[in-house]
Amino acid sequence: MKFLALTLLVCLLILPLKASEVFGTTSEELVKKLELENWEDLFYKRGELKRYKEGDRFRTLVEVVENKGLDWHIRIKGIRLLSNTHNVAAPDILIGMLYDPFFNHECPAIKSSVAEALGNFKRDHRVVDALLHSMNDEEIHVREASVDSLGKIGNKKAVPALLKVLNDKSVAMRIAAIRALGRIGDPSAVASIQRIAVKDVSEEVRSVAADVIHRLGK
Predict the structure, then answer these.
(1) Please, what is the average pLDDT of the chain?
(2) 3-state DSSP call for residue 111?
């Protein structure tokens, strides 16, 4: 009985410590890893990302991504990692961040990083809808990242919205739309891209459009 009581006492002392290690210090450890100069090598080449794809460590990664008190550079790194976990919960988390000022602080860098990260989820129709929505964001970097991701996803649902961007006053936006349409490869966009290749006021835009037409074999 004395041995059992002693064992229970030890367990009671150890369990809070382990809980602290999982829920308290792990996020701090993750932040330290993300602060390293070679953080990309650590996560992508040395396989550290595998440890954060599910379970408590995945929740820790989400905690870091959503932590408004952290430096935005760290949160952006976390966003990139989150999108590469391919966890089924990741799209919902990222879409929520894209829409909710509470999490994105209306920070163009965070929102554009989220829009870019969503390009990794090609089979989720909600992602396409979210990116179509963020194409109307007031920040050009967010709009451009949204267009890029729509091109990467390749869903033809985005074609009508991308065609409208061909008339955008921003050269960067027109180029992004042309490249996105080229990646999607919908025949209905060819005539518009050909027109841009001839008539756009920007030589750079005309060149990009001509290159896309050439790659499409038209």
Answers:
(1) 88
(2) helix
